[in-house]
What does this fold into?
Amino acid sequence: MEDNTFVLVIESLSYGGRGVGRRSDGKVVFVPGVIPGETVLVSVVKQHPSFINARIVEVLKPSPSRQPPRCMTFDKCGGCDWQHMPYEYQVKWKQDILLGEISKINKLTPEEVQPPVESIETYGYRRTARIQCKYINGQPVLGFFMKRSHRIVSFEECPVLAGPLQVAFDGLRCALERHPLPSLVWFDMQAPKDEVLISARLKGNISKDLEKSMYEIFMATDVPGMSFTVLGDKRRDYVFGQRYLGYTVDVNGKALEMVAGFGSFMQANHYVNTKMIDYVALLAGGAGNKILDLYSGGGNFSIPLASLGNKITAIDRNPRLVAQGKRSARLNDIYSAKFICMDSLKAVKQMASESITFDTVILDPPREGARDVSGFIPGLNAERIIYVSCNPLTLGRDLSILISRGYRFKSLKLFDMFPHSYHIESIAFLQR
It folds into this structure.
């Protein structure tokens, strides 16, 4: 047996999806594709001063829970991490990882851990996806990035994609074979309901041939709307067909009309997103509240909360998302939600300096969290803070800031937005 190959017992799972074990000398080893309790033969991929990255050579003692993955490219593709584990096992480990990661910051512990919300669909649930593209020998190669790499893993079918996305993917692949677009880098697909919008990113300079190819691809793909952003000597944006698609969100038995457009952010799992909206509405404290919604996007929380009789100030720095929120408000005859295009940090600084206060502050930041923003939120004198997080590492850091300013960490709840992946969505509730 070579020196870089050894037997390892898997003890737990880490944030990032890999299994964790210890070599005989006590050094921590991270291995993808394993289940706690398994004994595996591993080979060193890279040595670090305090840990080792390794890969499986052979599963010597498999877990009774191990199951065959549904995806043919699961062992390579970076889209999923845990298809080899039963779904209920995945949720259990996500809960453990979430609590473990936030406790690393000043031993943070919520007063109450709420039961997790599971996805009712574990396959065919994903309504947004970014597909990478390159041409090899004149043929398009479409797929997701390989695990921890920028190499593309091509696929014919992805089992986690919702049906409309798979159909659009098939159509676009055929269109790109007939109408080559070598400058294509990636494209985003979103299916708010049954139809799909596609946003493509290209590198290169504009030409009449390129403009013709883009139009031909749109016509051949059979989607209601497609946009192309070309980055060369200067940026050019092209839109063919519809700019927005509609979908509905049910809030307290009322169907709200929402819109999604090019360049917008939309949650990937419609069912879990609806449950998140219901939970945020519950925590927000009923009707008649003055609510600040930071990183508000297209109004995912603002529109439902306004429909329940609250006064909303929604802040987002993306003008497309702000326009989308205003459009959704008009569709529902909502006039108590004010959408402002502004950086969230600049907004909270200004509001705090002007002694503007709120009953509730909601924040739903990107993965890097809201460290600087969290330092100014207490100045808004809100009774309640609802923190929607997609990263337990930055969540723990930001909660520590808010707790140090007098807030109590009342509860934490996991929402499994992405079955089969390590990604964790959660909502933390704080109160004075």
Q: What stands out?
A: The chain has a mean pLDDT of 95. Residues 5-66 form a domain with the OB fold (Dihydrolipoamide Acetyltransferase, E2P) fold (CATH 2.40.50.140). The longest strand covers residues 51-61.
